[in-house]
Design brief:
This protein is an alpha+beta fold and 208 residues long. It is 38% helix and 23% strand. The chain has a single domain, classed as Phosphatase 2c, domain 1, CATH 3.60.40.
């Protein structure tokens, strides 16, 4: 395959199922995409995620506790930009011509509730709903990921991150860090610690 391939996964909880799901999902997704005959087709990307559901649920049958993770990936395609694969509440941002945009949607009850005005952003209901994932790897209903095609233009900066980054940093803090891509990851992670380090934080920055 041609072009970048970046993946972040964030386990649910801190048990063995969380560790297995996140580690296996990244390794298996990368392997599947690299070996696929048509790695950039939406059907192939959805099938790659479907196989992750099976692996995680198989582990869960033999191990007590919660097993699952989120996954966000950017799969480069030299002929058609790149493909975003999204399931859960990790995120992908793009900085283009000074504008920072969130390209993914969180698959959480909080995201749905905030969009439809069911509760306020800082309300107790919103905080509780933030932890209710509507889609994740290992879900018993095998939900499909969102698959989005994006262009890759010179000067673009893409950030893939877990909610430990997105929830602890403001829009302006993220945008400011991405202005200097070579140091962006260090700056983002340092700022999550300054903000309290309340959650695991993972970030990948790609500059076109």
């Amino acid at each position: 395959m041609a072009g970048p391939l970046a993946v972040v996964a964030d386990g649910m909880g801190d048990g063995a199922g969380s560790a297995f799901a996140s580690r296996t999902s990244v390794e298996q997704f990368v392997k599947t995409v690299r070996e696929a005959t048509e790695p950039h087709s939406p059907a192939a990307l959805r099938q790659a995620v479907a196989s992750l559901h099976l692996s995680v649920r198989k582990f869960a049958r033999d191990h007590p506790g919660l097993a699952g993770c989120t996954l966000t990936a950017l799969v480069g395609d030299a002929g058609a930009g790149g493909w975003v694969v999204q399931i859960g509440d990790s995120r992908l941002y793009r900085l283009r011509n000074g504008l920072l945009e969130l390209l993914t949607s969180d698959h959480t009850a909080a995201w749905t509730g905030l969009l439809h005005g069911w509760f306020g952003h800082e309300s107790a209901e919103a905080r509780a709903a933030r932890y209710r994932l509507t889609r994740y790897i290992g879900h018993p209903d095998t939900p499909e990921p969102d698959v989005l095609n994006v262009s890759l233009q010179p000067g673009d900066v893409y950030l893939l991150c877990t909610d430990g980054v997105a929830d602890q940093l403001t829009y302006d803090q993220i945008g400011d860090a991405l202005q200097t891509p070579p140091t962006a990851v260090d700056r983002l992670l340092d700022r999550t610690l300054t903000a309290g380090g309340a959650d695991n934080a993972t970030a990948i920055v790609l500059a076109a």
